[in-house]
Write a structure and sequence with these properties.
Elements (H helix, E strand, L loop, with lengths): L3 E2 L2 H6 L6 E7 L4 E8 L1 H8 L5 H18 L8 E8 L4 E9 L2 E8 L1 H4 L8 H5 L2 E8 L5 E7 L5 H12 L4 E8 L6 E9 L17 H10 L4 H5 L5 H9 L6 E7 L1 E2 L5 H8 L4 H7 L6 E4 L6 E4 L2
Parallel strand pairs: 6-12
Antiparallel strand pairs: 1-11, 2-3, 2-11, 3-10, 4-5, 4-7, 5-6, 7-8, 9-10, 13-14
The structure holds zinc ion.
Zinc ion (ZN) binds next to loops.
C-alpha cells in the first residue's frame, strides 16, 4: 500500500512548506485525496500577466484545481488540462495545465466589460453560458476528456460535476485564496471515493450515497477556508485534523510545485511550419522574422524560419 501511516506526532514535526502537494488515502473508506497550498508559484505565474483582481482570483483557483486534479496522475509525462470557454462571455478562455508539478495558465478576457462587474463577480457573470473541458493524458498516452457545463458557484463546483458526471467518481473539492496581507496564497483539497478500492478498476456500482463516502464527505466538508490557508497548519496537520478518528490514514508526498512553461523556439517553429508558405509570409515582420508570444508565460520568440 503506498504512502506511510500518519500520526499526531508527524503533524507537529512537519514544517509548513508552501508550493507543496500532499496525497493521502483513508484505506478503510476507499477514499483518496490531495491537499495543496501555493504562494510563490502563484506569484510567479501571475507575474507574467497584468490581470485585474477578479481574473487573478479566477486563475489562482484554476491553478489550485490543476494541481489537485493533475496530482492524481502518475509519471513525469502525464498531463492534466483545464479549459473553460464561452461564447460571448466576459472571460473568453481560461487555460491551465499541470505536468509533474509544473503549473501554468492564462486567461483571455474582455477588460472593458469586466470593469463594469465590480470586485467579486460571480462565475456566471464572468463566463455567461460556458463549458469546462477537463483532459487527463496519462503516462501511457491514454487520453480522457470530459466536458461539463460551467455551472455552480465556482470553478471548483464545476470540477466536482466533471467527476460525478464524466467519471462517476464522487468528489468533494474546496479551494480558498487570499490576496494582500501576508501576500497572495491559494490552497485546496480534493477528496474522492473509489468504490472498488483500487485506482484504475472499472467501477460498476457507483453510489453517491455509499455510507463510506457519506462519512468521508462529512468529515472533509468541515475544512474551512481559514484552515486551508493557515500557515501554522501543515498539510499533514490538515489531513490529521479531518481524519484522525479513522482506523488509518496514509500520506504520500506529492510533487514540489513549480511554475512551468514548455514553450521554446522549437515548439513554435514546429507549429508555424504547419501553416502554408503564403500564410507564414503574412506573419513575418519587416525584418522577415516571425514574432510569437507565449500566452502562458508572456515570453516572446523571434523566429527566423
Ligand atoms: Zn511559455
Amino acid at each position: 500500500m503506498p504512502g506511510i501511516p500518519i500520526c499526531a506526532a508527524m503533524t507537529e514535526m512537519t514544517e509548513t512548506f508552501s508550493d507543496t502537494l500532499l496525497g493521502f488515502t483513508v484505506p478503510e473508506r476507499n477514499a483518496r485525496g490531495r491537499v495543496v497550498r501555493m504562494d510563490r508559484v502563484l506569484d510567479a505565474v501571475l507575474s507574467a500577466h497584468d490581470y485585474p483582481a477578479p481574473i487573478t482570483h479566477l486563475l489562482g483557483e484554476a491553478l489550485v484545481l490543476g494541481a489537485l486534479m493533475g496530482g492524481l496522475l502518475k509519471g513525469e509525462t502525464a498531463q492534466m488540462t483545464i479549459q473553460a470557454q464561452t461564447n460571448g462571455g466576459i472571460v473568453k478562455l481560461l487555460v491551465c495545465d499541470y505536468r509533474a508539478g509544473a503549473v501554468r495558465g492564462y486567461v483571455d478576457f474582455d477588460g472593458a466589460r469586466l470593469g463594469t462587474l465590480g470586485a467579486n463577480p460571480t462565475l456566471e457573470a464572468l463566463f455567461g453560458e460556458g463549458y469546462l473541458g477537463i483532459t487527463f493524458e496519462t503516462e501511457a498516452d491514454q487520453r480522457y476528456q470530459g466536458i461539463v457545463p460551467l455551472e455552480g458557484a465556482s470553478l471548483a463546483e464545476a470540477c466536482e460535476s466533471y467527476f460525478s458526471q464524466s467519471e462517476q467518481i464522487p468528489t468533494l473539492i474546496r479551494v480558498a485564496s487570499r490576496a494582500g496581507g501576508n501576500g497572495r496564497a491559494a490552497a485546496g483539497m480534493l477528496v474522492q471515493h473509489l468504490a472498488d478500492g483500487e485506482e484504475g478498476r472499472e467501477r460498476l456500482h457507483v453510489r453517491l450515497d455509499h455510507p463510506d463516502w457519506e462519512h468521508v464527505a462529512v468529515l472533509a466538508g468541515t475544512i474551512s477556508h481559514d484552515e486551508l490557508l493557515d500557515p501554522a497548519l501543515s498539510l499533514e496537520a490538515i489531513v490529521w485534523r479531518l481524519f484522525n478518528e479513522e482506523e488509518e490514514v496514509r500520506v504520500l508526498p506529492g510533487a514540489a510545485l513549480t511554475r512551468g512553461c514548455r514553450c521554446s523556439p522549437e515548439h513554435y517553429t514546429a507549429i508555424i511550419a504547419r501553416f502554408p508558405a503564403d500564410e507564414q509570409q503574412g506573419m513575418r515582420g519587416p525584418d522577415g522574422v516571425i514574432a510569437v508570444d507565449c500566452a502562458f508565460c508572456s515570453r516572446t520568440f523571434a523566429l527566423a524560419i
